[in-house]
Design brief:
The protein has about 350 residues and is an alpha+beta fold. It has three domains: about 1-85, Winged helix-like DNA-binding domain superfamily/Winged helix DNA-binding domain (Arc Repressor Mutant, subunit A, Orthogonal Bundle), CATH 1.10.10.10; about 95-135 and about 240-354, 2-Layer Sandwich (Beta-Lactamase); about 140-230, Enolase-like, domain 1 (2-Layer Sandwich). The protein is about 50% helix and about 20% strand. The protein contains 14 helices and ten strands. A five-stranded antiparallel beta sheet has the order 7-3-10-9-8, with helices on both faces. A three-stranded antiparallel beta sheet has the order 4-5-6. Strands 1-2 form a two-stranded antiparallel ribbon. The radius of gyration is 25 Å and the shape is elongated. The protein starts with a helix and ends with a helix.
Length: about 350
């Protein structure tokens, strides 16, 4: 961070203005910015040749790139990083946007997952990108558990919590399951579930299976173990990743290579179970983080950017995150405050619910 800041301070006023205007022009239009365009917007009257010389110097520093011969310049990933860290002018959230976000949370005290789903859809609509919401794990006591067979290799577990929240999760059961073993597994878990959270239930299940080994069918025992591992992976603090607005990233993308990169990104989002690691969430505090291109290993192949902010509970512990995914030429100045406001609001609402 210090080296980047020094790089800005070492620029003279003209170089800094040329750099800023090239980046802002690119973020607005997506097109390279030429020297003749800049002569009409610079604060001092300078020739196109002078501006071209400045651009060449910035290109030598690795901050700008020329995609085609005789074309204008676009910022590199390093240039975008420098701009975001040192020159970005962050706007304010308008009353209209605040009201839209506030309205997405709803007045009812019901399902948290539904509320976060609405928040994701709203974020996507406001930013014209794809939204990402990392939901907190469910900590209410379990009221009822039920296994339902969907196919020989697919089963559904229905989890009903004391606070009225319902989760349906599909998983792959051990082979050979029967209607009888599903019923037995359901009855066994419900005999233990009352008053226990998922984490508590997991801690007692294995002990109880050993105690009741003679009375519990082996198929039912296998099903419980596999189901339990699916509900609450050890060390996981997060429940579910909600992604909305995928189509926004595909709009205007015509090149096959670009479409494949975007599909690769969403495939990665589907497969990564511990997505928090890839969002680089820590317990060190809140605040918006901006990852550009390959800076985040989740996005290294997709050429995308992520603006993300953790949200906290009443104990100031990070329990989830909200963010926006888009091309590297996101409108960072507008999106950063929107993501920040949404994360703080979600944290306050969930704290009040708990």
């Amino acid at each position: 961070m210090t080296e980047k800041t020094n790089l800005i301070s070492e620029m003279n006023n003209r170089s800094r203005e040329v750099f800023r205007r090239v980046v802002e022009g690119y973020l607005e239009s997506g097109d390279p910015v030429g020297s003749r365009t800049l002569t009409r917007s610079m604060s001092e009257q300078v020739s196109a040749a002078t501006i071209r010389n400045v651009m060449q110097d910035l290109e030598y520093l690795g901050l700008l790139d020329s995609p085609h011969i005789s074309a204008g310049r676009i910022p590199t990933q390093l240039g975008l990083r420098l701009f975001v860290d040192g020159l970005l002018e962050v706007g304010t959230v308008t009353d209209e946007v605040r009201n839209t976000i506030d309205g997405s949370l709803g007045k009812e005290s019901g399902d948290v997952t539904s509320m976060l789903d609405r928040v994701g859809s709203t974020l996507s609509g406001l930013t014209h990108g794809a939204s990402l919401v990392l939901a907190p794990k469910q900590e209410a006591p379990v009221k009822h558990v039920e296994f339902v067979s969907l196919a020989p290799d697919r089963a559904l577990v229905i989890l009903v919590f004391e606070d009225g929240h319902v989760e349906n999760r599909i998983f792959t059961p051990p082979p050979g399951q029967t209607a009888s073993s599903l019923r037995e597994a359901t009855n066994f878990l419900n005999s233990l579930a009352a008053g226990r959270t998922l984490a508590d239930l997991r801690s007692v299940v294995e002990v109880e299976i050993k105690k009741n080994r003679r009375d519990l069918d082996s198929l039912a025992a296998e099903l419980i173990r596999s189901g339990d591992a699916f509900w609450e992976s050890e060390g996981s603090r997060y429940e579910r990743l909600i992604v909305r607005g995928r189509a926004n990233l595909l709009e205007g993308s015509t090149e096959t290579e670009e479409l494949e990169r975007i599909r690769s990104l969403f495939d990665d989002l589907e497969r990564k179970r511990d997505i928090a690691e890839y969002l680089e969430l820590t317990e060190e505090g809140d605040g918006v983080r901006v990852f550009i291109g390959s800076e985040n290993k989740l996005f290294s192949l997709s050429g995308s950017s992520l603006v993300v902010s953790p949200y906290m509970n009443a104990d100031r512990k990070i329990i989830g995150a909200v963010g926006v995914i888009g091309p590297t030429r996101l409108n960072y100045g507008r999106i950063v405050p929107i993501v920040d406001y949404t994360a703080q609001l979600v944290g306050r609402v969930l704290s009040s619910k708990s």
